[in-house]
Design a protein that fits this description.
Layout: H1 17-39, H2 43-54, E1 58-59, H3 60-67, H4 71-83, E2 87-91, E3 99-103, H5 105-114, H6 127-150
Antiparallel strand pairs: 1-3, 2-3
Length: 152
């Protein structure tokens, strides 16, 4: 909740930080829709390509960790991106149990085509405020993940 004077019993939906983040995520999805439609991608396909552009030839498990996606969610995304010609999946020569994903030339070109298509201006935040909010939300995510690991 956002206010220390609110109690759990009288909290309104707008007082919940989790709802603010959830609804902001929905708004981001709606705002990204025209960009993603133009690229012919879903949001998870898009962020997968960005992650591979940052570091090519990643193990599927490492890619999943960076994207916060389980293998059963990531595998269909990678299969679709492979069918579209944007990535290739191949077994590691060192350990055949390990699957390596890398961008194809077509995948690199698509990422270049998407460069600069972001929603920073649409957020209504200044550059410094945007960076600070991104860091705060990332810290929040990491703290929440750490708290769930402690309780397991």
């Amino acid at each position: 909740m956002s206010s220390s004077s609110s109690t759990a019993a009288d909290a309104k939906l707008a007082d919940f930080l989790c709802f603010a983040i959830y609804s902001a995520n929905l708004a981001y999805g709606k705002a990204y829709r025209p960009i993603l439609d133009q690229l012919g991608l879903t949001y998870t396909q898009y962020i997968t390509l960005i992650c591979l552009h940052e570091q090519d030839q990643q193990r599927v498990s490492d890619l999943g960790e960076k994207l916060f996606l389980e293998s059963n969610t990531l595998t269909p995304i990678l299969k679709k991106l492979e069918a579209m010609g944007y990535v290739k999946r191949q077994r590691s020569k060192a350990d055949e149990r390990v699957l390596i994903v890398s961008l194809t030339d077509k995948g690199r070109r698509l990422r270049e085509q998407a460069r600069g298509k972001n929603l920073v201006a649409a957020t209504g935040l200044g550059a410094q405020e945007f960076k600070q909010l991104q860091k705060s939300v990332s810290r929040l995510r990491d703290s929440l993940l750490a708290s769930t690991q402690r309780s397991e």
